[in-house]
Amino acid sequence: MERKDFETWLDNISVTFLSLTDLQKNETLDHLISLSGAVQLRHLSNNLETLLKRDFLKLLPLELSFYLLKWLDPQTLLTCCLVSKQWNKVISACTEVWQTACNNLGWQIDDSVQDALHWKKVYLKAILRMKQLEDHEAFETSSLIGHSARVYALYYKDGLLCTGKALGLVS
């Protein structure tokens, strides 16, 4: 088919397609898809992806993004930071979200510090420390040689640790 004839045909079919009901449009698309080969289906897949997948967080005004982010829990926010650099930038800049997360962990919030990245780092360090405590990895342990019974006293100064045990008293 010549280019000019094709364009005329396409205009006519477009007008007809627009006059159909939604159900008829769906049936027409289903039929065209069933007639399509691999090249057409790949073309359709590539074009549909750009039409259907929109980065709404990127499209929203920053204030509205912050409002929506307040509804997510911190773990979800951290996962969302992995979606893209833009999402990480927006989520990391939301001071109120990270202050609230720190507050929920029991941190006293200093409202004079408005750096969202500071509060995100505080939150991440707190979560790491809590995991270390949970896994018994927060402190270094070592065994002391020299006591065969319980230790009843400890004294630490300048990197030295002194221990003591109860003496047996005769009455």
From TrEMBL:
Report the SUPFAM superfamilies cross-referenced here.
F-box domain (SSF81383)
Please verify whether the record's keywords include Repeat: yes
Membrane-spanning segments: none
Instruction: Please tell me whether the keyword Metal-binding is annotated for this protein.
Output: no
Question: Which segments constitute the F-box domain?
Answer: 54-101
Per UniProt, which keywords does this protein have? Repeat, WD repeat
Q: Which InterPro entries match?
A: F-box-like_dom_sf, F-box_dom, FBXW2
Family matches, as CDD domains:
F-box_FBXW2
What the entry lists under PANTHER family is as follows: F-BOX/WD REPEAT-CONTAINING PROTEIN 2, F-BOX_WD REPEAT-CONTAINING PROTEIN 2
Quote the protein name from its UniProt record.
F-box/WD repeat-containing protein 2
